[in-house]
Structures are given as C-alpha cells and as structure tokens.
Write a structure and sequence with these properties.
The protein has helices at 4-16, 57-60, 150-165, 250-261; strands spanning 20-25, 33-36, 43-44, 49-52, 66-73, 76-87, 90-94, 100-101, 112-120, 123-131, 182-187, 191-195, 208-217, 220-235, 239-246. By secondary structure, the chain is an alpha+beta fold. The chain folds into two domains: 4-101, Electron Transport, Fmn-binding Protein, Chain A (Pnp Oxidase, Chain A); 112-261, Thrombin, subunit H. The strands form two sheets. Strands 1, 2, 3, 4, 5, 6, 7 and 8 form an eight-stranded antiparallel sheet that branches. It has a seven-stranded mixed barrel with strand order 9-10-11-12-15-14-13. A hairpin with a 3-residue loop joins strand 11 (182-187) and strand 12 (191-195). The longest helix has 16 residues, at 150-165. The N and C termini lie far apart (55 Å).
Amino acid sequence: MLSGLERELIGAYLADEPVVLFLSPLDEPEQQERLETGRGGAEVSRSGVITIREPPESLLGWIGKPLGAVFYFRKLGLTFTSSVERAGEGAVIKIPQEISRLQERVIPENDVEGVVYYSLSGSEVSIPCESSPAFPLFTAEIPWDREDGDGLDLRLAERAASAYVDSEETSLEPIQGRVLPLLLLFLSDRRIVLGGGAGSFPLKGGRDYGIRLSCALPGARRIIDAALTAGEVISGGNCACICALRALQAEDRRFLYENLYGGIFSGPST
C-alpha cells in the first residue's frame, strides 16, 4: 500500500492529469472497461470522486459490484478497489484511501519457461518465453485418431493458436511499456506455438531460431535444447506463430510426445 505522502501525490495526479483507468468487476476479471478522465472524459475531484456523466451501459451493469481499477503513474501500475454508484443520469466511482502497486504475475511451479535466441550483427538476441495458466500445456483433449500423426499435431497447434488470437484478454503489467515474454501456447515433439500479445511479433516467418526450454518436474527441471523454424504470424486480437520444432534429442522428443499424448513414443517423428 502507498504511504500517506505517495497517496496524496497520486490523488493530485488523478485530479489534475488525463488518465486511463481499466475497470473490471472482481468476480468477472475477464470483463474490462476503459475509462478516460480529463479532456472531455470523466471528471476527478480533489476529494477523490470520479464523475461519469454519460456512463456506458456495460458500466451501469456493474453498479453495486466490487470493482477493481488499474492505472499507470509514470509507467508504474497502481490499483484500487471501489464500486460504481448511480448519480442522477450519470455514475460515480469513489477513489479509496488505499491504493496499491500492481503485483507481478505469479508463474506456477509446474511451468515451462525458456528463451528463443538468434544472432544479430555478431551479438546474441534473447527473447524469454513462458507458459500461462490460461493456456496450460500437455492438457489438450485428443478428439482425433492418434495414428493421424502430423495432421493431428498440426490441428492441435492450429486450435491453440486460434484460441489465443481470438482472445480478448488484456494483460495489465506492473511496469507500463515493458517488453513481455512470449507465451508458450502449445508444445509437442513436432511443433511449438508462441503468442506475442497485440503488438508486433518479434519472430519472422521462415527464419530459424534456437530455443532452450526448462520444464518443471517433481523436485527438478528438464532442460531441452532445440531449433525452431517460425511459420507465418497469425494476427487478430493477438498475434501467434506456429513453429516447427527441430534438432531435438531422442529422449527430449520422447518426453514431449508422451507428456502431450499420454502414450508411448514409438519412433522418430516424420
């Protein structure tokens, strides 16, 4: 929680400067409304009351619900909890005394993380990647014949990429503008699907990259070194790329296959 002096400074900032707030009901965090203050938007008084003269219907539907708000002050993510209340034809949100720093995301212990790397002008460029609870790996339901081989694997990869690209989920980070890791959306012995949010995607279709993965095991981690060839970048609400995974050691290929399909790996991928 912010100190008294910090809280006073932030209160003045909210009243005097145009700010964008991201609002979500605490019981439906996937729902989000963007609210702009100042310059014709909502008004913020020195007493800490946000007045919205023409609130959107979606916001009116949250009246009485506990509401989380996120905004940025000098690129630092801050958050508070309040609620929307009716005020005549409009609505108000009261800014509480307690304003906190937005916390870093917690990555589960049973994760997969890694780094994609390549050479540029004689230097190595590294791009971190990590799994996400919203897109768990090795849990895909297998609705097709496992004997289908590469066709099945491709369909699973395309399904993961499509689900992410069509997703409207917005991740609010503690530090605004920070370069975020790529998301690991799908991983098999043949392919890996990487997600890159709504901005520009750092990998180029048709190019080769190195990758090192670290997979959590009970009491240990398994390191997998491989190469990948990026496919075409798929764009929508987010960007994703289906990549061919190459140069795997035989035991690493077996590990990835058996974790995804739950069966026994019978031979090299074709």
